[in-house]
Design the sequence.
């Protein structure tokens, strides 16, 4: 239950919430807005080999006014790499 807004002024690729090389993470019930890149980003590994990233839950977040015309290859929720037993659901973007 957090409000994160107005980020990315120093580093434009800064996310509202960034989770890399982590497991058993819950990102829920947040409002994230006015970032120049993605609202939530998880993972950051390539391929389907063994990974430390698993059991990530991203749900019921309100994500809006992201990107703002600065960067591309982004999304409200950006996932990269194999993330077993993870789920993204009921987010409003």
Sequence:
């Amino acid at each position: 239950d957090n409000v994160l807004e107005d980020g990315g002024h120093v580093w434009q690729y800064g996310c509202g919430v960034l989770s890399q090389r982590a497991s058993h993470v819950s990102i829920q019930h947040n409002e994230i807005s006015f970032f120049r890149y993605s609202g939530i980003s998880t993972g950051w590994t390539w391929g389907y080999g063994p990974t430390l990233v698993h059991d990530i839950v991203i749900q019921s977040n309100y994500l809006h006014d992201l990107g703002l015309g600065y960067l591309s290859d982004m999304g409200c929720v950006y996932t990269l790499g194999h993330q077993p037993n993870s789920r993204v659901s009921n987010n409003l973007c």
Summary: The first strand starts at residue 3 and ends at 7.
